[in-house]
Amino acid sequence: MVYGWIGGKHACVDLTGVSPLVGLGSGVFTVGQAALKAAAAKVVKHEKACNDNQHVFIPFAFDTFGFLAPDVVELLTRVQRVMHSNVMTPRSMDVVFKRISFAIQKGLAAQLVARLPSILM
């Protein structure tokens, strides 16, 4: 939940990470297709409930190759601007995107390591 997001309305944020390799056999590979499809599914599933409660719904969808859906980029850019206006260091301008990128990489690495055969560990 992000309080006071747009026009005093709070925003419900749903985090969704997907592999861009899901469904590759079904057609041509398009960058970001899996994340955009996941975001659209989340909107269908949750937007009405959020609107009924006077909230805005933001699907935070990304893929494990680093693609961020447009709503995510907008959210993070806004967070980054707020941080920069309050912190004002040269590093503060890109820290949000770097941290998100690192968190995605760390989560992916943990998933890969968990799938390694126990003989290799």
Automatic annotation (TrEMBL):
PANTHER family: PROTEIN, PUTATIVE-RELATED. This is Uncharacterized protein. It comes from Methylobacterium brachythecii.
